[in-house]
């Protein structure tokens, strides 16, 4: 662990522990189907405590970002992983394209939507924008067996708007239209619904052309505001 990572984790642990709320933690864990223990910190409190922990510290480099993220992933309480997602998103301009391997490790470890989605839509999205050759990795992820990598490939363009590569967006959706998992089918609908804000006619046309392939959930989500 880098020196900065050690300081961050020491400060963060102190701040988070001081705000621990066991009563709230029980409900938060239940909401996540009791997959992870929680400290009981709502997002506003978690982020305020994180700001206090980071105050006055130097900006991290790529090695620091990796060390901090992995240290957070090694902690049992979910708030540490949620902090790591925020921290990576805030510094997504720092690492190079090779950092995608670290993000893949995070996506496929302790996987659930609360970490996968911000990693997909902010961290992976930022890396791909800055390093366009990573689109080839998204093509690979869109076809793998791991559903969280598939979900990430589908969602990484969620906030691209007019910069969306529609051939990839629609191609990924068609390729995974029959996926058996809820989270992939939901991601397809969510990605299409979001892109409909930019080009509603394109989404209507796509859904009409692939209605027999897309799941009812994906169609319902895609057409929600059309």
Automatic annotation (TrEMBL):
Xref: Pfam families: DNA_alkylation
UniProt xrefs under SUPFAM superfamilies: ARM repeat
Domain of life of the native organism: Bacteria
CDD domains: AlkD_like_1
Name the UniProt record assigns to this protein: Putative DNA alkylation repair enzyme
């Amino acid at each position: 662990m880098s020196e900065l990572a050690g300081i961050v984790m020491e400060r963060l642990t102190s701040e988070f522990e001081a705000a621990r709320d066991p009563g709230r933690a029980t409900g938060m864990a239940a909401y996540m189907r009791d997959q992870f223990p929680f400290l009981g910190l709502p997002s506003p409190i978690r982020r305020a405590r994180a700001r206090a922990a980071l105050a006055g510290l130097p900006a991290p480099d790529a090695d620091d970002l990796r060390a901090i993220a992995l240290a957070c992933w090694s902690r049992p309480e979910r708030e540490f992983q949620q902090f790591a997602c925020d921290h990576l998103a805030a510094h997504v301009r720092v690492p190079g394209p090779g950092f995608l391997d670290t993000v893949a490790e995070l996506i496929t470890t302790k996987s659930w939507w609360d970490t996968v989605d911000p990693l997909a839509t902010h961290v992976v999205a930022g890396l791909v924008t800055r390093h366009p050759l990573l689109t080839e990795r998204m093509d690979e992820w869109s076809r793998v067996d791991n559903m969280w990598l598939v979900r990430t490939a589908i969602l990484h363009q969620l906030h691209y708007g007019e910069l969306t590569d529609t051939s990839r967006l629609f191609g990924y959706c068609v390729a995974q239209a029959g996926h058996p998992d809820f989270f992939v089918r939901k991601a397809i609908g969510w990605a299409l619904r979001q892109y409909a804000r930019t080009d509603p006619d394109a989404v209507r046309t796509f859904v009409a052309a692939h209605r027999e392939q897309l799941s009812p959930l994906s169609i319902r989500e895609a057409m929600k505001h059309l």
